[in-house]
């Protein structure tokens, strides 16, 4: 335990109370209920202290920390998924608009006689059109999958929070 504390102090220094740097130990005495008053250790040191106490205790602490970490990551993933779906729809519509503009431009060229037929595309234009169509299809599939995930996670989160 002493080695861990020495390493921590060397790494982060002896931080004073109220400073923004990392502290190895926190002492809560003012402004909290009596049941929460006491000395707390930094979250990065929890598993070291648990190992120091006993191996059995370390396993229990590991399970608790993993469950807390899992809940935090689930919440962050849910928020990220919502952001992704909300931001994906305008971007998807913008890409579809660009593709429509290109198609209209291409049809105008045919209509005004710049090209005699739609089949007179050179090799580069054909590859571009194929690539854009594949991107459009993939974006459409990804958007539908994101909407499905949001619906599923929405139900899960509602049940979990109740």
From TrEMBL:
* Domain KilA-N: residue ranges: 1-68
Name a Pfam family for this protein: KilA-N
Q: Which InterPro entries match?
A: KilA/APSES_HTH (IPR018004), KilA_N (IPR017880)
Per the record, the domain of life is: Eukaryota
Q: Where are the transmembrane segments?
A: none
PANTHER family named among the record's database cross-references: KILA-N DOMAIN-CONTAINING PROTEIN (PTHR48135:SF1), PTHR48135
Q: Which protein, by its recorded name, is this?
A: KilA-N domain-containing protein
Q: Which organism was this protein described from?
A: Trichomonas vaginalis (strain ATCC PRA-98 / G3)
Organism lineage reads as:
Eukaryota, Metamonada, Parabasalia, Trichomonadida, Trichomonadidae
């Amino acid at each position: 335990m002493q080695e861990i504390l020495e390493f921590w102090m060397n790494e982060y220094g002896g931080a004073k109370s109220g400073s923004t740097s990392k502290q190895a130990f926190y002492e809560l005495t003012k402004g909290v209920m009596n049941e929460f008053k006491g000395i707390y250790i930094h979250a990065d040191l929890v598993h070291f202290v648990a190992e120091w106490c006993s191996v059995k205790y370390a396993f229990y602490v590991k399970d608790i920390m993993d469950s807390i970490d899992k809940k935090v990551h689930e919440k962050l993933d849910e928020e990220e998924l919502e952001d992704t779906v909300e931001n994906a729809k305008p971007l998807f519509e913008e890409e579809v608009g660009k593709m429509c503009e290109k198609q209209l431009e291409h049809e105008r060229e045919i209509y005004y006689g710049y090209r005699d037929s739609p089949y007179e595309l050179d090799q580069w234009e054909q590859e571009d059109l194929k690539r854009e169509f594949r991107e459009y299809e993939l974006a459409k599939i990804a958007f539908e999958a994101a909407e499905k995930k949001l619906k599923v996670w929405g139900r899960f989160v509602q049940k979990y929070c109740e």
